[in-house]
Design a protein that fits this description.
- By secondary structure, the chain is of the alpha+beta class.
- 22% of the residues lie in helices and 27% in strands.
- The chain contains seven helices and 17 strands.
- Strands 7, 8, 9, 10, 11, 14, 15, 16 and 17 form a nine-stranded mixed beta sheet that branches.
- Strand 12 and strand 13 form a beta hairpin.
Length: 343
């Protein structure tokens, strides 16, 4: 007996957690397999349970987990509870405050800390720490208190947080109009031939893997948003390069996507394939050396080193710098030792 009972969505009682429109080129694929590629931290069991509960809708009709998605299908995942990221709770978490005044603060975020609650990360985030420490932080356009911009979970470095509505408006405008300054340091696979250059390419969601972004060029550029990254080589270390990246725009995963696009994926960037040995030899000793580097730096090699902006009240330009964290520094030192040994 089939215990699946279709129900039409009651919009008053359900909250949308995910929504997708299936790509035009999508071949038929079971919806449970499809959603595993598109929802972070989802398991097939969880997806099948959601379908069984009547929570997965295609074109506003609930479907079984065996339903095969078709091009242009509209998929919505609806639950009776709001998304966890809407339920913000303050938590007593230490944060490294580099600077603070009545209008704003600058935070040095450690690698591993999520900036705001989201799928699979509902506590221990920077926002949980901020709302515990500060009352009445202004919301940004995405209803996230204090956040002017963000950096990825496994990227370390500097963020500015607004404490007043005026500061939020002023700082957000600087980021939108590209007058803020942001420099990152990255370790990437391969030897970058040019000493410096710029990468231009529209960035948008990968058509087959929504956990990744990709570069769209030419006729497909409209699928993404304009993005520009300026890079400069700091140090060449044989099979890897230390590079400085300055952002002219701030797209999700911008440096990770742009560097992969030019053939230099970030070292140990698991989401974009950098956790594999992309350059080097086939010797067992070399493989062991790289594995040891991965253990020392168990994340993508990216650090938001400097941050500059005009203060919203004083009008003065402020610039902040933070040292490369120990895990990344140790990894770079290992590569320095390796290249000296090779010489």
């Amino acid at each position: 007996m089939d215990d699946y009972t279709p129900q039409l969505p009651d919009e008053d009682n359900l909250y949308e957690h995910h929504a997708f429109v299936v790509d035009k080129g999508q071949t038929p694929l079971r919806i449970d397999k499809y959603l595993m590629n598109f929802v972070e931290n989802a398991t097939r069991n969880k997806i099948q349970a959601a379908a069984k509960n009547g929570s997965i809708f295609v074109n506003d009709v609930p479907v079984k987990s065996s339903y095969k998605v078709k091009p242009n299908d509209t998929i919505r995942v609806l639950f009776t509870h709001p998304p966890h990221e809407n339920l913000l709770v303050g938590e007593a978490i230490d944060i490294d405050v580099v600077y603070e005044d009545d209008d704003l603060l600058v935070v040095n975020k450690p690698a591993g800390m999520v900036v705001h609650p989201g799928h699979g990360n509902y506590s221990g985030t920077l926002i949980n720490a901020l709302i515990y420490k500060f009352d009445n932080l202004p919301n940004n356009s995405s209803e996230r208190p204090g956040l002017v911009h963000r950096i990825d979970k496994d990227t370390s470095g500097l963020l500015v947080v607004a404490k007043t509505e005026q500061a939020m408006t002023h700082l957000s405008l600087q980021f939108a109009e590209k007058t803020s300054e942001r420099e990152y340091v990255a370790l990437v696979w391969g030897n970058i031939e040019e000493d410096k250059g710029s990468i231009e390419g529209h960035i948008g969601r990968h058509p087959r893997n929504r956990l990744q972004n990709t570069v769209f060029l030419g006729d497909e550029a409209e699928k993404g948003k304009p993005a520009i990254t300026h890079y400069k080589v700091i140090e060449r270390l044989g099979y890897v390069t230390v590079v400085s990246c300055k952002l002219e725009t701030g797209r999700t995963h911008q440096i990770r996507v742009h560097m992969k696009h030019m053939g230099h994926t970030l070292f140990n960037d698991e989401r974009y394939g950098g956790e594999k040995i992309l350059k080097g030899t086939t010797f067992t000793k070399y493989k062991q050396f790289v594995e040891n580097c991965f253990k020392v730096l168990p994340r993508q090699a990216l650090h938001a080193k400097t941050l500059g902006f005009t203060h919203p009240t004083t009008g003065k330009f402020m610039s902040f710098d933070t040292p490369i964290p120990e895990d990344m520094q140790l990894c770079i030192e290992k590569w320095r030792g390796y290249t000296k040994h090779m010489e």
